[in-house]
Amino acid sequence: MNFPADYHIHTWMCQHATGKPVEYAAAAARLGLREIGFSDHSPMARDDFDNWRMRLDQLDEYVEDVREARRRHPELSIRLALEIDYLPGFEDWIRGLARRHPWDYLIGSVHYITDTWDVDNPAKKAQWQGRDPLEVWTLYFERLTRAAASGLFDIIGHPDLPKKFGIYPSTSYTHLYRPFLAAAREHKLAIDVNTAGLRKECREIYPGPEFLKMAWEQGLPITFGSDAHAPGEVGANFAEAITLVRGAGYTHYCRFEERRRHLEPI
Q1: What is the distance between the alpha carbons of residues 60 and 54, in angstroms, rounded to a whole number?
Q2: Residues contacting residue 195 through CB under 8 Å, at least 6 positions apart
Q3: φ/ψ (deg, to 5) at 9
Q4: First CA to last CA across the chain, in angstroms?
């Protein structure tokens, strides 16, 4: 099977992954991938904001590490990108990051539903206790919709992330998807089909089948991502992801170069 590009890959710089870009590229080449993209967690204005991203003074080193992977693995198309957290009030910071280097794409993600609670952080899982899951999911999708409407990104990462720990609202919640999908369509965003969920407690790809079907009905394109945090995770579970997206109706995925999008058959 010819796998699509893996556009969601982290490196040792984010403090919770292992391996340098050259190691991930070597793993991708062994797997037979033709294209990958590095999208490590971007710096914040304060290096002590949290403990799962690169420092600002490492950004240039990160870019050079990706360029070294390109030199060492000319058989691969290797894209340079960032995964950037969307937090209201940080829009100018994100615009500044976008100008620093010739990125091929920017993934916008929401991890924080408040300034201090990153809902997918295992160290903060206890904060779910006593909270109505529907309230948490609602806050998340309100912020994700703002991220989509900001016009700052090319791809939205793991769009139903609150399911990571297998915590779901007890009542219907698919209505939460609709404002986000409308904003994503208006701003011509792609959706990250992210296999990391299969390695988490939810045991399901981000996004799930119903979400993905709604995205297809809205005409939203997709990218594929392993969310690899170790070289051995590159391309992980892509066969399952291809089955999922085909079941939703997708026949193409998209690639990026210098923030320009191109469709490719799956």
Answers
A1: 11
A2: 205, 224, 225, 226, 227, 236, 237, 238, 240, 241
A3: -135, 135
A4: 10
Structure-derived torsion over alpha carbons of residues 58, 63, 69, 72, reported in degrees to the nearest 10: -110
What pLDDT is stored for residue 2 in this prediction? 83
Q: DSSP labels for 130-187?
A: TS-HHHHHHHHHHHHHHHHHTT--SEE-STTGGGGGS---SS--GGGHHHHHHHHHHT
Q: Which residues contact 231 (CB under 8 A, 6 or more apart)?
A: 18, 19, 23, 24, 26, 27
CATH code at 6-265: 3.20.20.140
Domain-wise residue ranges, the chain: 6-265
- Res. 137: pLDDT tops 80: yes
pLDDT at 1 over 70: no
